[in-house]
């Protein structure tokens, strides 16, 4: 990591507030570019009157969500998440007091939200120290660029990252920064 830092400088902040809006943004970032997700998020924010929360999402129709750029699936995931929050079956603020495994379990119990979503929320919003989002393509490619001998299997990635424990979140941010640096972004 020292060599990476010397090459690319300090890692990007990669932090977000631990809010409902952040969880929605992470949903929008699933399997698309960050730039594309940001455009959709900004449109959704405008449709919500500048504040994305469960009540305002519930006030939007499927057609409204689709006009913002959400796919049919993501519109469903965001709507169901808002419903869970409104019914008090899920508390975004409550996640801060849970252990990592509890956060993962609570997030992945929601439709369309998997381990990647939970890991990104743990890393960026809750700022936990030892998160390795192995489902993140930029992380996997970045690790392979850092160390070409690493395979692409989950086991190979986890084994290579073991040396960074208990600070795998910091290593992840460095690798993401390296990944963007290598692409002139």
From TrEMBL:
Keywords linked to the UniProt accession: DNA damage, DNA repair, Glycosidase, Hydrolase
Signal peptide bounds: none
SMART domains registered for this protein in UniProt: ENDO3c (SM00478)
Pfam families referenced in this protein's UniProt entry, alphabetically: HhH-GPD (PF00730)
Designated name of the protein: DNA-3-methyladenine glycosylase II
UniProt cross-references to InterPro entries, sorted A to Z: Alkylbase_DNA_Glycosylase/TA, DNA_glycosylase, HhH-GPD_domain
Stored SUPFAM superfamilies: DNA-glycosylase
Any one GO molecular function term: DNA-3-methyladenine glycosylase activity
Name of the top EC class for this enzyme: hydrolase
Gene3D superfamilies documented for this protein: 1.10.1670.40, Hypothetical protein, domain 2
PANTHER family per UniProt: DNA-3-METHYLADENINE GLYCOSYLASE
GO-annotated biological processes: base-excision repair, AP site formation; DNA alkylation repair
Catalytic activity, as annotated: Hydrolysis of alkylated DNA, releasing 3-methyladenine, 3-methylguanine, 7-methylguanine and 7-methyladenine
Gene Ontology CC annotations of this record: cytoplasm; protein-DNA complex
Domain HhH-GPD: 28-180
Enzyme Commission designation: 3.2.2.21
């Amino acid at each position: 990591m020292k060599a990476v830092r010397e090459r690319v400088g300090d890692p990007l902040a990669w932090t977000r507030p631990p809010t409902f809006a952040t969880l929605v943004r992470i949903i929008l970032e699933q399997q698309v570019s960050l730039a594309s997700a940001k455009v959709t998020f900004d449109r959704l924010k405008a449709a919500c009157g500048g504040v994305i929360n469960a009540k305002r999402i519930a006030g939007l129709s499927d057609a409204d969500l689709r006009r913002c750029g959400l796919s049919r699936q993501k519109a469903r995931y965001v709507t169901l998440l808002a419903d869970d929050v409104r019914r008090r079956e899920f508390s975004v603020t409550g996640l801060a007091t849970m252990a990592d495994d509890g956060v993962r379990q609570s997030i992945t119990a929601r439709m369309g939200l998997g381990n990647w979503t939970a890991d990104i929320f743990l890393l960026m919003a809750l700022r936990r120290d030892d998160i390795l989002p192995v489902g993140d393509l930029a992380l996997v490619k970045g690790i392979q660029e850092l160390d070409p001998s690493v395979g692409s299997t989950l086991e190979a990635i986890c084994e290579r990252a073991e040396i960074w424990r208990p600070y795998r979140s910091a290593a992840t941010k460095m690798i993401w920064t390296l990944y963007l640096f290598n692409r002139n972004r």
